[in-house]
Amino acid sequence: MKRTYQPKNKQRKREHGFRARMRTRAGRNIIKARRRKGRKILSA
Apex CA 11: angle with CA 10 and CA 16, to 5°? Predict the structure, then answer.
């Protein structure tokens, strides 16, 4: 049986990347929360 996770970098960036996050208000809130928490990596 094929595994469920078939990694694709373009798809990953499109769905979870920084630019995708900044597109919506909720996404910007996620980035803000991660900055507040002091995350080294903010998004994919």
Answer: 105
Give pTM, 2 decimals: 0.79
Reading the block at residue 38, the tokens are: 């002091």
What distance in Å separates the CA atoms of residue 26 and residue 37, rounded to the nearest whole number? 17
Amino acid at 15: E
Q: Domains of the chain by range and CATH?
A: 11-43 (1.10.287.3980)
C-alpha span between 19 and 3 (Å, rounded): 28
DSSP 38: T
Over residues 14-33, the mean pLDDT reads: 97
